[in-house]
Structures are given as C-alpha cells and as structure tokens.
C-alpha cells in the first residue's frame, strides 16, 4: 500500500496510469518501439498523486524520471503491460498514456541475428493486445472512468473521435504529433479532450499543466 503525497480531492481513489513506449524484442540486442519520452504520462501520474490519489504507474522503458509517491511497475513489452494492468485492477479510473507498440515480432530470436550471414532478415509481425480496448470493454470490474490517448498526425479530432467509439473508452485525450508541432519530446502539449459531449480543445500549455487540468477533470468525474 502506497502513501499518497497529500490529502486532496482524489484521496481514497485508486488510479492506474500507463506510460512510456513498449519494447518488442527482435533478438537480445534489438527491438521495435514507438517514440515516447514518457513525459506526459509521468506528469499525469504525479498530478493525480498530488491530488491525493493512490496511483499505480505502469511504465515501459522511458527516459522520464519516475514520479514520486506512486507505485511504479516497470515492463518491457505490450504483453507484459497488459498483464501488469490486469494485476492492478480494480481501480476507480485508468489513464492509458503509453505508446504501446502495435505489433511484435512473431518469433523473436533467442540469439543475436548476425549480419555476416549475408542475408537481410525479413520479419513477420503479430498484432499486440489492445490494452485500452481490453479494459474499456470489460463487462465486470471495469474502471468507472477509462481515459485513452490518441497521438495523431492527420484529421486529429475525427480520428480521435472514431477511436473513442472503437475502443469503448470514456474520454480520449487527442494531440497532433506532427513533427512541426514540436510536441513529441517537448515540454508542451496542445490537446483536445473528447468525451461523449464532444471535443474541447485546450490551449497549448506545459505537459505538467495539461496533467493538472486532466487530474482536476478526473476528480470531478469521480465525484
Ligand atoms: N493502446 C493500448 N494498447 C495497444 C495500443 C494502444 O492500450 N496495443 C492505447 C494507447 O495507450 C492510447 C490508445 O490506445 O491510449 C490509442 O493508441 P493509438 O496508438 O493512438 O491507437 P491505435 O488503436 O493503436 O491506432 P493507430 O496506432 O493505428 O492510430
Ligand atoms: Ca497504435
């Protein structure tokens, strides 16, 4: 049992946050992954803890510092992340900020693939489990509030709105990660919160401030 950082509007609430990339091994020295600093997920975990929540932070291998006052679970792959998430349930709310690899190498090699064999390797991929969709569609023990993310480069609001319905989550935090926005790897974010009531675009602000505003909304939703 973790001690929350402070008394606040989320005292007594248990909240799960996923964050960072996942690494899907090709062989013992190589992997495929998404770009993710883990900065936004880390900020969200910290903001929830500051408001009194009992936070479990399930993170892939990210550079970001691990937040204080939260229970940290480190994983590598999407399969491990799903397992860790299922072990953490039940929770009051779950925020899925991780950039999970959509595919893994179907049969990763136990030994290092050598290039002096003279052949360029070809790889078969298998689809990873969708952790957000799995939790959103639970018929028993579903968190009361499930929040997903949608990092998009085109038609951000349309894609994210469709994603919310497809996955079955309550909210989607959408953002435009086109390189020219400088959001990936930066300290700021410009998000649109998509709920059943529609799309609400927030001004560009620091990732810490986005996290705080989101935590305020989560507290209000949990009552
Ligand atoms: N997500 C997840 N498990 C996966 C893939 C995604 O939990 N295997 C979650 C992410 O953490 C995020 C949300 O689903 O909260 C949306 O991820 P995204 O990659 O934008 O959606 P996809 O459905 O994978 O669609 P695509 O990558 O094709 O845009
Ligand atoms: Ca994806």
Automatic annotation (TrEMBL):
The region called Phosphopantothenate--cysteine ligase is annotated at 15-223
Keyword rRNA-binding in record? no
Q: Which GO terms describe its cellular component?
A: phosphopantothenoylcysteine decarboxylase complex
One Gene Ontology biological process: coenzyme A biosynthetic process
Top-level taxon: Bacteria
What residues does CTP bind to?
102, 112, 129-132, 149, 163, 167
- What are the protein's UniProt keywords? Decarboxylase, Flavoprotein, FMN, Ligase, Lyase, Magnesium, Metal-binding, Multifunctional enzyme
Which Gene Ontology molecular-function terms are recorded?
FMN binding; metal ion binding; phosphopantothenate--cysteine ligase activity; phosphopantothenoylcysteine decarboxylase activity
Q: What is its EC number?
A: 4.1.1.36, 6.3.2.5
Q: Which cofactor does it need?
A: FMN; Mg(2+)
What catalytic reaction does the record list?
(R)-4'-phosphopantothenate + L-cysteine + CTP = N-[(R)-4-phosphopantothenoyl]-L-cysteine + CMP + diphosphate + H(+); N-[(R)-4-phosphopantothenoyl]-L-cysteine + H(+) = (R)-4'-phosphopantetheine + CO2
Q: Where does the record place the DNA/pantothenate metabolism flavoprotein C-terminal domain? A: 10-220
Chain's role: Catalyzes two sequential steps in the biosynthesis of coenzyme A. In the first step cysteine is conjugated to 4'-phosphopantothenate to form 4-phosphopantothenoylcysteine. In the second step the latter compound is decarboxylated to form 4'-phosphopantotheine.
Q: Which family does it belong to?
A: In the N-terminal section; belongs to the HFCD (homo-oligomeric flavin containing Cys decarboxylase) superfamily. In the C-terminal section; belongs to the PPC synthetase family.
Per its record, how is this protein called by name? Answer: Coenzyme A biosynthesis bifunctional protein CoaBC
Gene behind the chain:
coaBC
């Amino acid at each position: 049992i973790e001690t929350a950082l402070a008394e606040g509007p989320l005292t007594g609430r248990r909240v799960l946050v996923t964050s960072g990339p996942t690494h899907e091994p090709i062989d013992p020295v190589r992997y495929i992954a998404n770009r993710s600093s883990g900065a936004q997920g880390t900020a969200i975990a910290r903001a929830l803890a500051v408001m009194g929540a009992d936070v479990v932070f399930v993170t892939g291998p990210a550079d970001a510092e691990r937040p204080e006052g939260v229970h940290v679970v480190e994983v590598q792959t999407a399969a491990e992340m799903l397992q860790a998430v299922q072990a953490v349930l039940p929770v009051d709310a779950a925020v899925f900020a991780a950039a999970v690899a959509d595919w893994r190498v179907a049969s990763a090699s136990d030994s290092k693939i050598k290039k002096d064999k003279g052949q360029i390797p070809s790889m078969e991929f298998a689809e990873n489990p969708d952790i957000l969709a799995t939790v959103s569609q639970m018929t028993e023990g579903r968190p009361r509030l499930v929040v997903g993310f949608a990092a998009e480069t085109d038609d951000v609001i349309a894609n994210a709105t469709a994603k919310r319905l497809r996955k079955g989550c309550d909210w989607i935090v959408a953002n435009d990660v086109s390189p020219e926005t400088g959001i990936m790897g930066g300290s700021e974010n410009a998000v649109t919160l998509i709920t059943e009531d529609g799309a609400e675009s927030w001004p560009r602000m620091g990732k810490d401030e986005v996290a705080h505003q989101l935590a305020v909304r989560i507290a209000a939703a949990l009552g």
